[in-house]
Design goal:
Largest sheet: 8 strands, parallel, barrel
Number of helices: 14
Order of helices and strands: EHEHEHEHHEEEHEHEHHHHEHEHH
Number of strands: 11
Distance between the termini: 12 Å
């Protein structure tokens, strides 16, 4: 199993009483809540934390893309990846987006990713997503075309990376007479690894598992039962095509906090994870799932998966559901070993900073996790697959 430090870069200085006047930290929250002076400090603190992960021996670091919110300050994640490309030496850099359907010219992603891949000498992991429903509100894009725009943009980017240019691309949404990206990707056999993060769209899972792609499917923030359900779906689709999905094709992203004891971990994490759950994630359903964004099949699956889960999420509810792992090193090792053996994922992306978690606790979390959890699980999973 491989270990990644994923950062959302939240606006941790958010006035948490905002919800007395506004119903979401997304799309409609006025940007007057953002102070650029504090933002300057946060950006540099967060970049330092990602660089520190390289020193601590993580396999990779991850940045991602969201728009018009306090949840994550990376509307253009390639800016962060570019800054990290020169300041890290060993880690893979996963860019998770980009949200392809939002773009009028996906070749900008082909170029941006190729630049990072060249600067790092092949340490890029190329994430491609549809983006959550809120992004379609922020960008004024019709979500009903998200699947076909995503797939067509993907095909265009792959053509740019794998065919000698110039070439012609003709599609429904994108047309180019000269597909001729400079620079070419460094990882050219045949292209950089592609990851597909998702909240569990069945169409996305079926598309990612197709034998022409076999892309790594990444389940984002979800209870362990949902993670198991969607990863089984991926394996079943693969089996239907006549091949067995490997652990390298499955990844899970979730928040985690580890401290000296279970009691200390819960006490130090409680306020910050509940700010993450109740303030930064706060979003009405019509914003998360606008009309046309998801199929009836996927909507039924999502509603079924969420049935019985707590309406107001607390540290107790998310620990019980396996959405958040929190405790002593022994507790965290035990849970992760159990879940990995049960589900069979090969990539674990941990949010070791979440919500308002301050710098000193983030670093403490990273250090204990990297010293007392990662080595143990590396050995366990290596023995299992030997």
């Amino acid at each position: 199993m491989k270990f990644y430090f994923m950062h959302l870069m939240p606006y941790a200085d958010l006035d948490l009483s905002y919800d007395e006047k506004h119903n979401s930290a997304w799309v409609t929250l006025p940007n007057t809540y953002y102070d650029p002076k504090k933002g300057h400090q946060l950006y540099n603190r967060y970049l330092d934390e990602l660089e520190y992960a390289d020193q601590l021996g993580f396999d990779g670091i991850c940045v991602n893309e969201h728009h018009s919110n306090a949840y994550g300050l990376m509307p253009i994640p390639g800016v962060m990846a570019g800054a990290l490309a020169r300041r890290t030496k060993n880690v893979k850099i996963a860019i998770l987006g980009r949200a392809l359907p939002l773009l009028n010219n996906p070749l900008t992603v082909a170029e941006e990713f190729a630049m990072v891949d060249n600067i790092t000498g092949g340490r890029l992991i190329a994430g491609m997503v549809r983006g959550i429903g809120a992004e379609y509100h922020s960008w004024g894009v019709n979500p009903a075309f998200s699947h076909e725009r995503f797939q067509e943009a993907h095909d265009l980017i792959l053509q740019a990376w794998t065919q000698p240019g110039p070439s012609v691309f003709e599609g429904k949404h994108y047309n180019f007479d000269y597909v001729n990206v400079w620079p070419r990707v460094y990882q050219d056999n045949p292209h950089p690894p592609i990851w597909i993060p998702s909240q569990g769209s069945s169409e996305t899972i079926e598309w990612a598992a197709h034998p022409d792609r076999k892309y790594t499917y990444l389940q984002t923030f979800a209870s362990v039962s949902i993670v198991a359900r969607y990863m089984k779906m991926y394996k079943d689709v693969a089996a239907g095509y006549g091949y067995e999905a490997t652990e390298d094709q499955l990844g899970w992203s979730l928040p985690l906090y580890v401290a000296e004891t279970d009691e200390i971990a819960r006490r130090e994490a409680k306020d910050h994870i509940e700010a993450f759950l109740q303030k930064f994630l706060r979003m009405p359903m019509e914003m998360l799932l606008p009309p046309g964004y998801t199929s009836v099949k996927s909507m039924v699956g999502a509603m079924s998966a969420k049935a019985g889960h707590a309406m107001k999420q607390t540290i107790d509810s998310v620990i019980e559901e396996g959405k958040f792992i929190c405790g002593s090193p022994a507790t965290v090792r035990e849970k992760l070993e159990e879940y990995q053996a049960q589900i069979g994922f090969g990539h674990l992306l941990t949010l070791l900073q979440f919500g308002t978690l301050p710098a000193e606790l983030t670093r403490k979390n990273m250090e204990i996790y990297s010293k007392e959890v990662m080595p143990y699980l590396r050995n366990v999973t290596a023995r299992r697959t030997a």
